[in-house]
Amino acid sequence: MVDGKEKKNFGIKDIARLANVSIATVDRVLNNRKDVSDATRQKIKDIIKEYNYQPNLYARSLSVKNNLNFAVLIPKTSLETGYWQLCLDGIEKGIKELEPFGIQTTVFLYDQEDVRTFVKVSEQILHGNFNAVVIAPIFIKETEDFVRQCHKRKLQTIYINSDIPSKSTLGYIGPDLNSTGRLAGNLTSYLVNPGAKILILNVAKGLENYKYLDTKIEGYKEYLHHLDRQFEIDIADIPYNVYEEVERELLRKMKTGSPDVLFVTNSRVSVVGQFFYEHPEITKPYLIGFDFLEANVNYLTKGVVDFLICQRPDKQGYLALNYLYRFFLLKEDGVNFKPMPIDIITIENYMFYEN
Amino acid sequence: MVDGKEKKNFGIKDIARLANVSIATVDRVLNNRKDVSDATRQKIKDIIKEYNYQPNLYARSLSVKNNLNFAVLIPKTSLETGYWQLCLDGIEKGIKELEPFGIQTTVFLYDQEDVRTFVKVSEQILHGNFNAVVIAPIFIKETEDFVRQCHKRKLQTIYINSDIPSKSTLGYIGPDLNSTGRLAGNLTSYLVNPGAKILILNVAKGLENYKYLDTKIEGYKEYLHHLDRQFEIDIADIPYNVYEEVERELLRKMKTGSPDVLFVTNSRVSVVGQFFYEHPEITKPYLIGFDFLEANVNYLTKGVVDFLICQRPDKQGYLALNYLYRFFLLKEDGVNFKPMPIDIITIENYMFYEN
DNA sequence: CTGAAAGCGCTTACAG
DNA sequence: CTGAAAGCGCTTACAG
């Protein structure tokens, strides 16, 4: 090495030299440990400030023998709700990034149609040796019980995807559901004339977290009512997993005066898309729905779905792990509420989404 | 440390032990250096595969004495085009992340209204000791000259924000301009009836990179013509920096039959917003423009601007630095073309954008 | 073709 | 209250 004159980063050694102490003492000051006299502490702090010292996080990570274990508790993907796969993708990306820091993350999946599976895996987590758990709540009461147990055992918790009343220790990362509904209302308002017929389709009967869609619907209605344009708003509840039921309901609705806009409150918009694709004789209303799932994008490209509102489920999971990392390793504070961006996807920008 | 049983990461030492060689030899294989017999090389490769060895990038970064110097060459922010500040924000974020890796990045700003400033700083870069330069091209010819000089000196180049015909070595990260225009056309199509009057406002006369807006306009017209709905499309070129000119032109246009949609081809939509805000007596058409600038968002919240199409300028700069890091440190390949997401922002989702 | 040793910037017992 | 030394997982001259 004869590069000689190259500037090294200003590091802990330099501080020690300038302060006439050992690096161990500098380390004590940096990490706010005790056992340092006020005089030396102040001297070192001054030097840190003067030279604008920035710790090398990679060196820190390399030397610290962290033993962190994180758990992730989310629903498993089903055919009907490919949504959770996206969430898992982001989580897996996060897991890979944390591995080099010596952080082990274990994913636990539960069946969102079977509360017993939730209880079962949540107990596994309690008996495992975890420092924190990322939770996507579906079963409100059981999640509350679980979180209470976690806190007893000093297990940090953080919610993603949907918030519930009883608080986690580190907050919530996910969409603001009311705003999500309002945005759908906003888009709707550009599509129709005063007095238009609007049909809200809740293709969610049978899903446990069904209730949380109400917040979206409220936001939607609230926005439209506020415009005061005499819209005729109707709502239909349909089982989430039976195409025939959707078909029957839609055929019925279409007979009694076709709506101008169909607002599907969740990712099941592809089923509605399928209906209009298979019934080309029926004039298609504008169609708005949620989530960047393959089936949904498929009907978007066919021109059947007009707008998809998306909330980056992958980013939620990724960010949650990232926050845990920062909380434990960088000692930063928790989040409390991190609203995700709400994206509008059409046939002309879907191809650039999320890369 | 008496944690004893905790699993260490499987590392270079373990490979060395299993292969009965020294860690130096393992390193040679890992980094594809020569001076290793085929037999040992194969043995080591097998072990790497079998145990799915993942190098600790932070250890690597810590040990490697990299001497990388990057340059960034972008326009400086002006009152009229706060856009470049956003770009700079992302670049500064990237710079901070690269610092712990011992990478020094220097930002050079030029005046997009004065080509001499571009020539001047680009020469500084050539005489500095840089390994790569991130360029936001405005002056086509001068950029081409500069890039040619860079390549002579083995300086890697990468474009952001807008692409130009003569190639950089590492590609382009930015929006696809034609698609951006098409998306605006797509939104327009939802707002109007057949035969509607549409006015394209090119508030860019006097800007050097004026021409590149043509690509957007082409995409816009192309999309609308394709719909075959007898739209009446008009276009107006207006100086980019004089409100009075915008006012005069708009007053004139409004007299000869008010358009239904105004499409402003760049970030100057706030000036048009200002016009309608100051002329409440005039019926406002739908208003579509570009970029998440404070002034634009301001008129979005006032309900004057309807849609802002945004291309994450901060992310471009950040990604460009990230790619350089990966190219030099992780030895990954270049990009060639990385289209940015194209976002649609309205009064109901702007508050969650980009956090 | 191969290995022993030093070093990257930090943290962590341990000894005083 | 303080410091010397070992170690995190890699890379890099240097010696053979």
Structural features:
homodimer, Rossmann fold, six-stranded mixed β-sheet, 13 helices, DNA-binding, 3 domains, alpha/beta, 434 Repressor (Amino-terminal Domain), 355 residues
Largest interface: A-B, 45 and 45 residues
Report strand order across the widest sheet of chain A: 2-1-3-4-5-11
CATH superfamily of the largest domain in chain A: Response regulator
**Number of structural units classed as domains of chain A:** 3
Brief summary:
Chain A has 355 residues and is of the alpha/beta class. Helices cover 44% and strands 18% of the residues of chain A.
Structure characterization notes:
- Two copies of one chain form a homodimer.
- Chain A is an alpha/beta fold and 355 residues long.
- The first copy, chain A, folds into three domains: 4-54, 434 Repressor (Amino-terminal Domain); 63-174 and 313-340, Response regulator (Rossmann fold); 177-310, Response regulator (Rossmann fold, 3-Layer(aba) Sandwich), CATH 3.40.50.2300.
- Chain A contains 13 helices and twelve strands.
- Chain A has helices spanning 12-19, 23-30, 38-50, 57-63, 83-98, 115-127, 140-152, 177-191, 213-227, 243-255, 269-278, 294-301, 313-328; strands spanning 69-75, 104-110, 132-135, 156-160, 171-174, 197-205, 232-239, 261-264, 286-290, 307-310, 336-339, 343-345.
- In chain A, helix 5 links the parallel strand 1 (69-75) and strand 2.
- The first copy, chain A, is elongated and about 85 Å long.
- The interface between A and B is large, with 45 and 45 residues.
- Chain B binds a DNA duplex (16 and 16 nucleotides) through residues 1, 8-9, 11-13, 21-25, 27-28, 30-31, 34-37, 40, 55-65, 100, 102.
